[in-house]
Design brief:
With about 250 residues, the chain is an alpha/beta fold. It has eleven helices and eight strands. The radius of gyration is 17 Å and the shape is globular.
Length: about 250
């Protein structure tokens, strides 16, 4: 069905930074090789648990910054508020643009407090609240004991996060549209689970590039469709072309 209204982002974000590559590799050496291979086709990298456990995480953050790249710390901090606050403070001056936090109001508030105590520059760290993982569907959240539907849970968590002062949320592209309808354009929506073609992996709530942005995403996160491609740079450039076409008139 044709969209009657779109929520294409008007934030002053360079179009080529709207694609975030999920750097899910087992070593810093592999990560650097991928950055070199992708070249200028990717400007923004998400560093998650796998590369964190490989060690030398802060070294990689500093190296990416030296290459003129942006970094997204995706460790989904979830602990007692004091520990989360201390963890976020460890990122001050490290060159990270985003960090993910998961948890209740007190945990999110602790992260926001820690961020606000850091350097107040235009490139300062932004706190993104996790809503519901894109690998979970309705059956999964019911098994976890939630007596609601996925969209309602995402909207509820996002409302709290925005009220607390988080800079944005992580949400599937399916919920981006109702998030924009209910909460406007003043916060960031980062959409993982992007599948440029038919999905065959463990992600369940997926959308394609165009739908994510038309529904209100500011950024998309793409991992395996680039990482597993025979020509990784070409795969990334194909996505960049699709993004540039969307934002050409903005």
């Amino acid at each position: 069905m044709p969209l009657t209204h779109t929520y294409l982002s008007t934030k002053p974000i360079p179009p080529r930074e709207r694609l975030i590559f999920a750097m899910d590799v087992a070593s810093t050496e592999q990560a650097k090789q991928l950055v070199d291979e992708l070249g200028d086709s990717v400007q923004f990298y998400k560093l998650g648990l796998e590369i964190f456990m490989a060690g030398r995480y802060f070294e990689l953050l500093a190296w990416l910054r030296a290459q003129g790249k942006k970094a997204f710390v995706d460790l989904k901090f979830f602990d007692v508020p004091q520990t989360v606050e201390s963890a976020v403070k460890q990122l001050h001056g490290r060159g990270a643009s985003f960090v993910t936090v998961h948890g209740n109001d007190e945990i999110l508030a602790a992260a926001v407090a820690a961020k606000n105590g850091g350097p107040g520059t235009p490139e300062s760290l932004k706190i993104l609240a996790v809503t519901v993982l894109t690998s979970l569907d309705q059956r999964d959240i019911e098994a976890l004991g939630f007596q609601t539907d996925v969209a309602a849970l995402v909207l509820s968590r996002a409302k709290r996060a925005i009220a607390i002062g988080c800079d944005g949320v992580i949400s599937s592209g399916l919920e981006a549209r109702p998030l924009r309808e209910q909460h406007g354009a003043g916060f960031l929506i980062v959409v993982p689970g992007i599948r440029p073609v038919v999905n065959v992996d463990d992600q369940k709530r997926t959308v394609d590039v165009e739908d994510a942005f038309l529904n209100g995403a500011d950024y998309i996160v793409v991992g395996r469709p680039i990482k597993n491609a025979d020509d990784k740079k070409r795969a990334a450039e194909d996505i960049q072309t699709r993004i540039s076409h969307l934002f050409a008139s903005r």
